[in-house]
Amino acid sequence: MQGKKLYQEKLFSSFQLSHRVPENNFYRRLKEVLDLSFLYQQTHVYYGKCGQKSIDPVVFYKLCLVGYLENIISDRKIIDHCSMRLDILYFLGFDIDEELPWHSTLSRTRQLFPENLFEEVFTHVLSMCVEKGMVCGHTQAMDSAPIKANASMDSLELKVPEEQLEAYLQKARYQSREDRKSKENKAPKTQQIITASNQELQQVKSRNRNWQKNQDQRPGASNKGAKYTSNKTHYSPTDPDARISVKPGKARKLNYLNNISVDTSNHVITDVKAYHADKKDNQYLQDATKRLQQRLKKQGLLWRNLLADAGYSSGENYAFLEKENIISYIPPHGTYKGGPAGFTFCKEENYWLCPQGKKVTFRKQRMVKNSLQNHYLTKRSDCKNCPIKQKCIGKSFEKKIGITVYVDEYERNNKRVRSKYGRYMKGKRQSTVEPVFGTLTQFMGLRKINTIGITQANKVMHMSATAYNLKKLLKFVTKKTEIMVNEAITCFSVVKNQFGSFMSFLSLQ
Q1: Per the record, where are the segments of Basic and acidic residues compositional bias (predicted)?
Q2: Is CB count within 10 Å lower at the N or C end of the chain?
Q3: Contact at 8 Å (CB) between 133 and 247?
Q4: 92-122: string of b/e by CB count within 10 Å (b at 16+)?
């Protein structure tokens, strides 16, 4: 007999979420494991003693976590998504007839709480991973990647000299009123003034000419604002902390730099930080190392090895890591050659010997592109009638050698990198930190920063990393439980077989 289902809403019903959410559900298990009650004590200073009650800080943070666990970066969509999921409502502590907070409450509360609070939650979850034996701390892999900022290249403004700033702003305001697109300029006055030297501006112009010749056919090159832009000449009034950065073969964008460290044992994120995207990776290594070293020390873990790519290579970093008793496995940058070909270095007397037996003596130390170098020169008389002058120095009068003062640190690191164990460490790094970045950007809501400012970007990155570690934690606990159950079953089977054999022996007697 054919059935036909008719729907009619009941006035009264008996319903419990705990009966409908399965025992093995992810959010049910997460609710049992995650305790954020310490947030009440940490956040009470940010609220008054009268007025309407605010959103529960634990509920706020759980809602944010759900967004990253479900790969949703819009606050409005987070609320809509949570209201349709019974397991998430159970995780949040809401019943089916309770209204969730308004979506703008998430944005306001995120701005209210300081960034150190989000770091504390990240550290709390990391401590849970350490207690479960997921983090050894011995070897850490470090890497960084640009994350798109919540600002468009079309909004870029031109930096002008200080004496012309006021006239330029008046003209811009008048044009905005005419176009009915007047917006607040959030950039400080210091960022609106051009500070680049004439030499730097000339380099920008030269790069622009090369871009015009070589990059016009690249993807995104036709976008307004994608060409002829530099942090020395332009800034974003929408998000002043965002910086223009570019990857080879890709159009320029306003980004933040996400720097993370990952433990190689179970791929748990041990450190995360938002930086400006207009600097090189090696300029942030020492800051990240100090922060991570303190965190691991508080967890009672000893850090011994650091794995990173060539972007973190510099003599200053190698010397710093040796001072901190950390062994580096960082490939040297392509600019390091170890000295000119055919020249021999005499370390005792600190000079170079050319192929013709002439000395290239030490003259002075100076900074070149934020790196300290030793500079050596020959005498003009030594090079005047040299048979290999044209090949060696061309039209110059003397041979000049500029080499980093950290040659010994470079060579010790390079020896480790070229060894068999160093090649193993390279594979370890590639299989550890790079998949983590792929997971964060594609599946954990970090494909774009949906906030304004580097402080808010840092909060977003910490929450995404926290969500990633929680997924790792639950997966590890489940896997460990299954292993223990299988071992118990195997042990029981062995004992049963041995007991059966013993009983058979007794029956024969």
Answers
A1: 175-187
A2: N
A3: no
A4: bebeeeeebbeeebbeebbeebebebbbebb
Provide the domain limits for residue 388.
344-407
Q: Which of 206, 235, 264 is the last residue of a domain?
A: 235
Give residue-wise pLDDT tens across range 455-487: 999 999 999 999 999 999 999 976 555 544 454
CA dist 182 → 179, 202, 242, 337 (Å): 8, 33, 20, 53
Asked if residue 28 belongs to a domain, the reply is yes
Dist CA 276 CA 257 (whole Å): 6
Query: Within a 13 Å sphere around the CA of 51, how many CA atoms are in the beta-carbon half?
Result: 5
Task: Provide the residue-wise pLDDT of the chain in tens; the chain has 509 residues.
Answer: 677 878 777 776 777 888 889 999 999 999 999 999 999 999 999 988 887 888 999 999 999 999 999 999 999 999 999 999 999 999 999 988 889 999 999 999 999 999 999 999 999 999 999 999 999 999 999 999 999 999 888 888 777 665 555 554 555 544 444 444 445 677 776 667 766 666 666 666 666 666 566 655 555 555 545 555 778 778 888 899 999 987 776 778 899 999 999 999 999 999 999 999 988 899 999 999 999 999 999 999 999 999 999 999 999 999 999 999 999 999 998 777 778 888 888 888 888 888 888 888 888 888 887 788 888 888 888 888 888 888 888 888 888 888 888 888 999 999 999 999 999 999 999 999 999 999 999 999 999 999 999 999 999 999 999 999 999 999 997 655 554 445 444 444 544 455 455 455 445 55
Q: Are the beta carbons of 316 and 405 closer than 8 angstroms? A: no
Name the domain count of the chain. Answer: 3
In sequence order, the 6+-apart residues with CB closer than 8 A to the CB of 73 are: 67, 445, 447, 448, 450
Helices (H) and strands (E) in the chain, counts: 18, 13
Q: How many CB atoms lie within 10 A of CB 382?
A: 18
Whether 273 contacts 291, CB under 8 Å: yes
Walk across the sheet containing 400-404 and list its strands. Answer: 344-346, 351-353, 359-368, 371-377, 400-404
- Shared-domain flag, residues 22 and 108: yes
Say yes or no: 26 and 106 in one domain: yes
DSSP, collapsed to helix, strand or coil, labels residue 362 as strand
Domain boundary residue, one of 235, 268, 296: 235
Domain presence at residue 246: no
Return d(Cα 257, Cα 250) in angstroms, integer. Answer: 16
Does the global pTM surpass 0.90?
Answer: no
* Domain assignment present for 310: no
Q: Is residue 491 part of a domain?
A: no
Torsion-angle region of residue 35: left (phi > 0), alpha (psi -120 to 50) or beta?
beta
3-state secondary structure of 96: coil
